[in-house]
Specification:
Creatine Amidinohydrolase, alpha+beta, binds cobalt (II) ion, binds 2-amino-4-trifluoromethylsulfanyl-butyric acid, globular, 249 residues, four-stranded antiparallel sheet
Length: 249
């Protein structure tokens, strides 16, 4: 069963989503070559705490940090630490918060100066792929219409979508039903209904879609060590179309 949220629950999720978006606003003030990934983790962790919320990833299945920072060939779940961000790095940051019993979850990829053309294209296509997926999250569409829209868009540029990791329903739990693959044929799966809250999150690779996990048991990297980017938003499905909750407005 996919949980349907009440208007009151949507209001709380709007607050959680806004806080996630504000975290990215804080990051954007400081992210540049030379900063340590741990410094970004600390900044976000403090910011979330200052807003009467908690970082949802911390302790999740034993995850040791507040956010995920994944660089270049790292796809997701990179653990912040002493590593310094360098010039031209592609930096993907994933943030989850729990506030007033409801979650918000989003990811953004940033490109450090001087910008590499290939990396810029990958980041832009991945962001647009998320938009395509969200556009398909309309009342009475099937769940897999989202998946198909993402895969179809990404592969038209010769890139690949990661298959081992998926988007998800979100609410009182960070991961609720349904799973939302970033690939698949259209017209399958449950029908989308008003009040469903979904975290849609394409992970896009320049080379193979295959990934593996490093010895730290968390960091997911591309099998061919080519570049990967990640964008995610939490949305709610309404009569008037999808509304992005992880936005600051
Ligand atoms: N944001 C991830 C997701 O969407 C969760 C990160 S895994 C964690 O599923 F362990 F770091 F929490
Ligand atoms: Co997520």
């Amino acid at each position: 069963m996919i949980p349907i949220k009440t208007p009151q629950e949507i209001e709380l999720m709007t607050n959680s989503g806004r806080l996630v978006a504000q975290c990215f606003g804080e990051i954007e003030k400081v992210i540049k070559p030379g900063i340590k990934t741990r410094d970004i983790d600390r900044l976000v962790s403090e910011f979330i705490g200052d807003h009467r919320a908690v970082a949802a990833f911390k302790g999740y299945n034993g995850y040791p940090a507040s956010i995920c920072v994944s660089i270049n060939e790292q796809v997701v779940h990179g653990i912040p630490g002493e590593r310094e961000i360098r010039e031209s790095d592609l930096v993907s940051i994933d943030i989850g918060v729990l506030k007033d019993d409801y979650h918000g979850d989003a990811a953004r990829s940033y490109l450090m100066p001087p910008e590499d053309v290939e990396k810029r294209k990958l980041v832009d296509i991945t962001e647009k792929a998320l938009r395509e997926g969200i556009s398909a999250a309309r009342l009475d569409n099937h769940l897999s219409d989202i998946s198909f829209a993402i895969q179809n868009f990404v592969e038209s540029y010769g890139y690949s979508v990661v298959r081992d990791l998926v988007g998800h329903g979100i609410g009182r739990k960070m991961h609720e039903e349904p799973q939302i693959p970033n690939f698949g044929k259209p017209g399958n799966g449950p029908i989308l209904k008003e009040g469903m809250t979904l975290a849609i999150e394409p992970m896009v690779n320049i080379g193979t879609w295959r990934v593996e996990t490093l010895d730290d048991k968390w960091t997911v990297v591309t099998k061919d060590r080519k570049l990967s980017a990640h964008f995610e938003n939490t949305i709610v499905i309404t009569k008037d179309g999808p509304i992005i909750l992880t936005i600051d407005k």
